[in-house]
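User: Run a structure prediction on this.
Assistant: Running it now.
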Amino acid sequence: MVDLASQYFRLQKEIDAAMAEVLTQTTYINGPAVEKFRLHMQEYLGVRHVIPCANGTDALQIALMALDLKPGDEIIVPAFTYVATAEVAALLGLKIVMVDVDPDTFNLRLSDILTGFSPRTKAVVPVHLFGQSCDMEPILEWAKLHQIAVIEDNAQAIGARYFFTDGRQKMTGTMGQIGTTSFYPSKNLGAYGDGGAIMTEDENLALRLKMIANHGQKQRYYHDIIGMNSRLDSLQAALLDVKLSHLDSFCDSRQAVAAYYDQRLQQVAGIQIPQRQQNSTHVFHQYTIKVEAKQRDALQNYLKENLIPTMVYYPLPLFEQPAFQRQAMKAKEKLEVTEMLCKQVLSLPIHTEMDEEQLDFICNLIERF
């Protein structure tokens, strides 16, 4: 699905030098490499504050903790997403309201959010799924009107840009009160271990986020609030700083792979290629097709027999997961889109090192099936 070895060999000289510098400095926690990466990340995203942390799930939990939400407060999340989006809310005792998504872009829309809105709603988490932005402008306007916090889950779309109707453009993860991301190795900007970051424009929120990530302290051994221990280590920061300088080219490579898939698969009966959000770029963390439900598993097995890996993101709706049977609350409507997508989606291999021979081989197999 992702060829990290070939990418490393291509960038080996830069990566080895950056990591060797950390090994020489021996500042493995909160060293100069972390600060360097943090500043470069702020510049790349065009955001005032970036707070590195240990992983993307921690980033989401720290974000919710910083908003000082109380047990029983309601938070709206898409039902079609990775578990972490809802998991952290459950850990904090929040009431999770799961809503449906757009059947073509897989992303949360304002119309979906409204099905779960109540006077107890305190926050909403738009997930920029598979590499493109949710339609954020109407969501942000509605949230401002109702004083609802917006936390962007940008684990899969770092590098994507959203275009407002007035001509402004912003990077995903920088539009809500807080944005979060993950540097899991397979992500578009991936570490060689765990890592994450939190973004905000708000000075006071930034201070609180930083404190929570560091045991609730501004000054060492003086703890003003309850926090946690969530740090990005210096070796991962050094690696990520190298990769950050290549992120736009990574996005270009993934878009080229997606364009090849589009051209070959758009006429194949029984398959729907990914739909682009008109006001967002797509950085293709995943290239996810929809296959007629009765054929999806058979196609996946056929590709597996021919040594082609695929993934189903996600096979079971969050509201059907045993872990959420007590905490979760669906919106009033039946979540038919999510149930349908779980039976139809199939993600094909996509990464920065794919060549036309590999793509041709995969597409030939799909056409043959």
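The CA atoms of residues 137 and 257 lie 29 Å apart.
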